[in-house]
Amino acid sequence: MIFTQAVTISVALLFVVSTLKPEWVSDRPALPAITIQEAIAPAAAPSGRTTTSYAEAAQRALPAVVHIFTSKDVKSQRHPFADDPLFRHFFGDRLDNRPQQRASGLGSGVIVSPEGYVLTNNHVVEAADEIEVALNDGRKLPARIVGRDPESDLAVLQVKADSKLNAITFGHPEQLHVGDVVLAIGNPFGVGQTVTMGIVSALGRTHLGINTFEDFIQTDAAINPGNSGGALVDAAGNLIGINSAIYSRTGGSLGIGFAIPVSLARNVMEQIIQTGAVTRGWIGVEVQAITPELADSFGLPSSEGTLISGVMRSSPADRSGVRPGDVLLSVDGRKVNDPQAMLEAIAALPPGRQAGFELRRGKEKLDIKVEVGRRPALSRGD
Question: Which residues are catalytic?
Answer without folding.
Answer: 123, 153, 228
